């Protein structure tokens, strides 16, 4: 399993949640009241938190029940990211993050995908009712159809991306094809939704549009691991944070554009969504990359006082005790650290020199423990 297929599990879960959540919310609201849905999902979240706390571990190597074959398989599959947890902490190159064109390509793509996602989550039922004169509560499964299609497309797109990367194309080319192709086709079908007068045609076009966006998940959504494996979690947090802004702006735009709830007003909503995705196609196509960036490999030593103090004490203890030798003597060493300032962001390059001592004879029995 490589990056595209490994990372598709997250979006599949979120869209599968929408597949179940949208119709279930409609049923709970229709037969009970709208408050029940909030209590229900809150309870499910509490149960999930307990499950996650009990079964999750930081990395495969420390899981108590994992087999050796499974551990090796997972670590080899995710590549460099598997060993990052064992490395020392370094100061993230924040300036490089926000001046990198590939990073901004991911951020813009996340915002575009989030716009249509939050548009459906927040306004799909309202669109069906006002523009199509359709009550979601009567057939909630139909409202979940776009997200169900997305859940099916994402794993297929992940396998396709891995196949293309392995046999035919570079990572950069695959990421751009998957992302720009998915966004471009989604934008086309969103335009069809905007001007469709037949409810079945509108629902079908909306379902196909969301389905095509599943291909984009194998583009921008795994791109963090391509360009900066060590900082992938930080970049994911940044891009998701900006993407969440779409969830704040989209409802405001919908409310402003659909004050009377007419079909023509809803057409403007989907035209804007289409244009946003066309913009994402252009920006990602120009600036995205699948290659590891020069700033992705740290050049500075740990920048944490607590971390440094702890290791300083360890170094002093090792220097004092030394290392055992077979003839009963102890060979110690003296550790000397030197730092060199570099031009790239005043990072420092640390070098370590060790000077070995001549073995000496130790008569004190306390040193027997170090043999």
Your description of this structure?
With 371 residues, the protein is mostly helical. The protein folds into two domains: 3-56 and 88-296, MFS general substrate transporter like domains (Growth Hormone, Chain: A, Up-down Bundle); 305-370, no CATH class. The chain has 13 helices and five strands. It has helices at 3-7, 9-31, 34-55, 68-78, 94-99, 101-130, 140-167, 171-195, 199-217, 223-227, 232-257, 263-287, 305-321, and strands at residues 323-324, 329-331, 333-341, 348-356, 360-361. A three-stranded antiparallel beta sheet has the order 1-2-5, with no helix packed on it. A hairpin with a 4-residue loop joins strand 1 and strand 2 (329-331). Helix 6 packs parallel to helix 11, helix 7 runs antiparallel to helix 8 and helix 8 packs antiparallel against helix 12 (263-287). The radius of gyration is 27 Å and the shape is globular.
């Amino acid at each position: 399993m490589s990056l595209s297929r490994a990372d598709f599990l997250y979006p599949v879960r979120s869209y599968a949640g929408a597949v179940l959540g949208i119709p279930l919310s409609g049923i709970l609201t229709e037969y009970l009241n709208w408050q029940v849905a909030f209590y229900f999902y809150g309870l499910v979240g509490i149960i999930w938190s307990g499950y996650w706390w009990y079964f999750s571990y930081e990395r495969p190597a420390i899981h108590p029940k994992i087999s050796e074959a499974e551990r090796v398989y997972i670590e080899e599959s995710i590549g460099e990211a598997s060993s990052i947890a064992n490395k020392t902490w370094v100061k993230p190159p924040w300036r490089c993050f926000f001046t990198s064109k590939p990073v901004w390509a991911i951020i813009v793509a996340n915002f575009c995908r989030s716009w249509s996602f939050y548009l459906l989550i927040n306004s799909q039922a309202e669109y069906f009712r006002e523009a199509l004169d359709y009550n979601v509560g009567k057939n909630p499964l139909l409202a979940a159809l776009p997200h169900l299609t997305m859940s099916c497309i994402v794993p297929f797109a992940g396998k396709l991306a891995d196949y293309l990367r392995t046999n035919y194309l570079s990572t950069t080319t695959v990421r751009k094809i998957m992302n720009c192709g998915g966004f471009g086709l989604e934008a086309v079908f969103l335009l069809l939704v905007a001007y469709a007068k037949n409810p079945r045609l509108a629902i079908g076009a909306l379902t196909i549009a969301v389905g095509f966006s599943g291909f984009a998940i194998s583009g921008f959504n795994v791109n963090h691991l391509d360009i900066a494996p060590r900082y992938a979690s930080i970049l994911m947090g940044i891009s998701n944070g900006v993407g969440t802004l779409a969830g704040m702006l989209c409802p405001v735009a919908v409310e402003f554009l659909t004050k009377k709830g007419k079909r023509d007003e809803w057409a403007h909503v989907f035209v804007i969504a289409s244009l946003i995705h066309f913009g994402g196609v252009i920006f990602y196509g120009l600036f995205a990359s699948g290659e590891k960036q020069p700033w992705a490999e740290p050049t500075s030593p740990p920048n944490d006082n607590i971390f440094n103090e702890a290791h300083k004490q360890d170094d002093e203890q090792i220097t004092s005790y030394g290392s055992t030798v077979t003839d009963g003597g102890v060979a110690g060493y003296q550790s000397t650290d030197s730092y060199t300032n570099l031009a790239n962001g005043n990072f420092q390059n640390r070098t370590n020199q060790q000077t070995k001592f001549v073995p000496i004879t130790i008569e004190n029995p306390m040193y027997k423990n170090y043999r």
